[in-house]
Amino acid sequence: MKQLLLAISIMVCLTSYGQNVATQKVSLTGLIKDKKTGQALSYATVSLQHKTDSTQLTGALTDENGRFSITTTTGSYLLKVEFMGFKAYENPNFELLKDSNLPTVFLEEDLHTLNEVEVTAEKTSVEYKLDKKVFNVGKDLLSKGGTANDILDNVPSVTVDAAGGISLRGNNNVQILINGKPSIITLNNGLEQIPSESIEKIEVITNPSARYEAQGTAGIINIILKKNRKSGFNGSIQLGTGIPDQHTASLNLNYKSEKFNVFSTLGYRYSNFFGGSESSQTIFQPTTLYIDQMNDQQRNDNAHNYRVGAEYFINDKNTINFSISRYQMDNDDFTTITYNYLDEAKNIERTEIREIDYFEPMDYKEANLTYTKLFSKEGQKLTVDVNYDWWYNEELEDISYKQSFPTSDNYQAFNTRNYEASDDLTIQSDLVFPISKDQRIEAGLRFQTRDITSDYYVKEELDGQFVTLGNFDNKMLYEETISAAYAQYGNKFGKLNYLFGLRMEHSSIRITDRINELNLPKDYYNFFPTVHFNYQLNEKDKLQLSYSRRISRPQFWQLNPFGGFSDVRDQFRGNPDLNPNFTDAFEFEILKTSDKFTVNPSVYFQETSDFFQFIVSPDEEGYLITTLVNLGIEQRLGLELSTTYNPFKWWRLSGDFNFYKFKQRGQLEGKRYDADNQTWTARINNRFKLPKKFTIQGSFNYQGKSVNAQYTSYANHYADLAISKDIMKDRANISFRAINMLDSRRRILSAEGEGFLYESESWWIGRRLSLNFTYKFDQLKN
């Protein structure tokens, strides 16, 4: 047996040697365009196949500019270029003997295939680029009839908690973009208003290049909305219903001609569900106080949205794109909070009940204008983008407070109002200038301004009239201006691609208020270098090394000192003097692919100065007050592994695992807040294609325990299941989802500090069941 293995090894070595002598490595680059419009085709497939049996030997997808690059060996191939809805281009005798740049390939639309149902990818594919990972959203059953949050919950590296909070590799200081631009809809859990059917892909950028704004120490998540590329009139309709009450409807319409592409999306969502929490507090000063608290909440959300826009193809080198979006939602909630005050034997001494009738109308509007110019020099492009959004939301509360045990008295009534509004303008220009086939320079300018108003009061009923409480009556004004410029240089040396960049940002921030308690101007210049290396080991394997410097500016809610009045025993108060923090991030990753496997391990290190930390302390009345402060240094060292495995055509298995250790060092008012700990998350996803056009998909998620100086967040897990069937000659699909089917998705926290102990368990929706129907239609232009 040993001799046989030795012989086989010698033969393999000799064969490999012979191949190396006979062939040499060469590269093939090129550009793919739409013949009718002259527009570059992103994500077209370029493959080099065996001439006799059409077996694919290597290939690549075009990037967002329609470009591709393939490294392979010299030889004679069948060259094939394919893109959905277009006729394939073939060259059956393509000789590749040296580094070559393929003449631009123009693809023609295929009216026959366009007349058939649009077929999207059966699975979510992943592209690895020099500075980001792109997750092309396919037929992911677990997000059918869902929202952007449902899609993000299945994207590796991304975690969505039970309350809708989003983090990247366990860090919630992440910048979320829509179509490459900041959008107010990403705040206040607004991603719940974006239907999953309107999303084409998700870009995860853990170490962004200088082209991106420096905000977000964890990195960037960029949500790309769909834009139909097919000629003629087409669209889709989606209807959904669920238990507990959850009803959705969306309509997507698109018309494309030689000169215009008009698109629109309409959406409606209604939900009515129950949530709650249980908590206990022990306050040790001035005397020991024990409190058990129960929250029961009924949430009623009524939302609708639309997005309409048009592209005008002036000619094959100039395009104008305009769109306007609006998201409206009314939150109508009713919450009952029961406080049981206990003696040292844990017997109830008295019970108080607080009822809150909460109503919050929200209205977000956004307009975008983009001009794109392609130059005669291949690859040179200028983009000018103007984005304006204006929004308001108003929080109104009617609060009653009474004692129910041992006697029914001490009735109090309050009402509160917090009106917030903002005007945001962003202007950005980007230029890509290729020097040669491999060299390019990119540069850009950006200007952003934001004005936010928060006008709030609390009134108490006294003698039949509501009187304003002096400590809860103010108007806060927040003005922010950020100017930026960047430049970066990219080149290729053999198998090594590299990208060097530098970004400068000037931030001018001012906070004032009506009663002149706040006058906090901040003005600072910062430089953000970025470095990216990509080394191509062979056709399928590569190494990547990157560095970037990032900033996390406080969000408005983190600055606003009025954090609500619904639960007086547990209040959050923003810190208007909060400073930004800065992160230096390093990352090394390996990508290895084969016919059935894709493995992507990575190691990352982040060091953050002046990191944000929630600090809890009891006030003089024994109420717990949470605020956000800047502490010293936080270091994170992590290992992440993402993998996919396709053992058979009908079975796809994927998983991701993230483990990181962190060290926090900081001091506030003479007290140390140090922590050394580690945590991990894991996700596994199975997808099976069954006979009769059935597909079933299931996932399991686990989030490990995490401990810092005051807080402990305990482990939790949840499982989702979905099944779908294509019907009506594949023009329609019906699907069933069971989300959090074990009813195990809860947030369990504890906090301990000087003078207090706090424990809580919260749940939002619980188990969800939904049924969704999708129908697609096409009417081609003759």
TrEMBL record:
For this protein, the record's InterPro entries field holds:
Beta-barrel_TonB_sf, CarboxyPept-like_regulatory, OMP_b-brl_3, Plug_dom, Plug_dom_sf, TonB-dep_rcpt-like
Q: Which residues form the signal peptide?
A: 1-18
Extract the coiled-coil ranges from the record. Answer: none
Q: Which GO terms describe its molecular function?
A: siderophore uptake transmembrane transporter activity
Q: Which GO biological process annotations does it have?
A: siderophore transmembrane transport
Q: Where are the transmembrane segments?
A: none
GO annotations of cellular component type: cell outer membrane
Presence of keyword Transit peptide: no
Q: Which domain of life is it from?
A: Bacteria
Q: Where is the Outer membrane protein beta-barrel domain?
A: 374-775
Q: How does it sit in the membrane?
A: Multi-pass membrane protein
Task: Specify the TonB-dependent receptor plug domain's residue ranges.
Answer: 145-220
Q: Which family does it belong to?
A: Belongs to the TonB-dependent receptor family.
Q: What is this protein called?
A: Outer membrane receptor protein involved in Fe transport
Where does this protein come from, organism-wise? Sediminitomix flava
